[in-house]
Amino acid sequence: MQSHNEPQPLNIGGITVYRIGDALRLAGVSRATYFRWVKEGKVPDSRFRDRNKRRVLTVEELRQLQGVANVLIEGSQYNHRSASERQR
Fold first, then answer.
1. What is the bridge-based pairing of β-strands 15-19 and 10-12?
2. What domain count does the chain have?
3. Which helix (H) or strand (E) holds 79?
4. Which residue has the higher pLDDT, 87 or 31?
5. What pLDDT band is residue 84 in, cutting at 50, 70 and 90?
6. What is the Cα–Cα distance from 30 to 27, expressed in whole angstroms?
7. pLDDT digits (tens, 9 = 90+) for 35-72
8. Burial class (CB in 10 A: 0-12, 13-18, 19+), 38
9. Do the domain assignments include residue 2?
10. Would residue 62 count as lying in a domain?
C-alpha cells in the first residue's frame, strides 16, 4: 500500500505527468527556485497545463529538473566547503 503523501503521477491524454507541487517535492526544489530558474533559462517551463491551467511536468521534465537541481546543489555545496577550507 502506498503512502498518501507519496506523489502520484497522473495520466492525461496518454501522457504521464506530475502536478507541479509533487514534481518540485520529488526534485527537492522550492516553487520560488523553480520559477526563478525558468525566468533565468536554467530550466524550461512545463509544456503542459491541466484542465485548471495549472502546470504539470512530464516524467522527462521532472528528470531534467532533478538533474539541474543536483548539479546546482552539489556545486553550491562544493563552493561552500571550499570557502570554509580556505579559512582554516
1. antiparallel
2. 1
3. helix 59-87
4. 31
5. very low
6. 9
7. 999 999 999 999 999 999 999 999 999 999 999 998 86
8. middle
9. no
10. yes
Q: What residue type is 85 in one-letter code?
A: E
Residue for grid cell 504539470: 56
Question: Letter for the amino acid at 9?
Answer: P
For residues 3 and 43, give the distance between their C-alpha atoms in angstroms, rounded to a whole number: 29
* 16-40 residue pLDDT tens: 999 999 999 999 999 999 999 999 9
Q: What is the DSSP letter of 52?
A: T
From the list 41, 43, 3, 45, the residue with the least C-alpha distance to 20 is 45
Inside any domain, residue 3: no
List 70's β-bridge partners, or say none: none
- Is 55 part of any domain? yes
**Sign of CA pseudo-dihedral 32, 23, 51, 45:** positive
